[in-house]
Amino acid sequence: MASVNKVILVGNCGRDPEVRYLPNGQAVANVSIATSSRRKDRNTGETVEDTQWHRVTFYDRLAEIAGEYLKKGRSAYIEGRLKYGKYTDQSGVEKPTVDIVATELQLLGGQGESSGGGSRQGGGSGSYQSRQSQQSRPAQEQQSRPAAPAAAPAAANPGGFEDFDDSIPF
């Protein structure tokens, strides 16, 4: 049976990414992303905003890009997968963790939205994918992409729009 482990987040970066390098040279970036939803409280009728914080981990080139362009307050679209783990706190108690391992990052909004970052052409938004995600997409895109229509000479299309009288007044 097939299974799916996919997360899509659209939210704001809560702090600048922390980028570090593992001994093998692999880049790793960690960031917190906030997502918010609004609802009306049944008792008071007031609008209540519910904010959730998500720990997101980027690897390899995607980690370097996140470290360079993703800044505190910047909006981003992130795709990834859930990864469950646990850690032992200072008092020796094991606690569960939930991380999102990012496979795709798309920066949202303009350059003026963030408090830094490099300059990019195209208005400051960009889309980036992990190497694994890029390798799996070309085959899918080739299958779903329709073939280019062959150019046919106008004379080969009798009864088409070429002989249509366009003197209609509307």
From TrEMBL:
InterPro entries: NA-bd_OB-fold (IPR012340), Primosome_PriB/ssb (IPR000424), ssDNA-bd (IPR011344). Keywords: DNA-binding. Residues 127-156 have a biased composition (Low complexity). Pfam families: SSB (PF00436). Residues 109-126 have a biased composition (Gly residues). Signal peptide: none annotated. GO terms for molecular function: DNA binding. Residues 105-170 are annotated as: Disordered. SUPFAM superfamilies: Nucleic acid-binding proteins. Homotetramer. PANTHER family: SINGLE-STRANDED DNA-BINDING PROTEIN. HAMAP family: SSB (MF_00984). This is Single-stranded DNA-binding protein. It comes from Hydrogenophaga bisanensis.
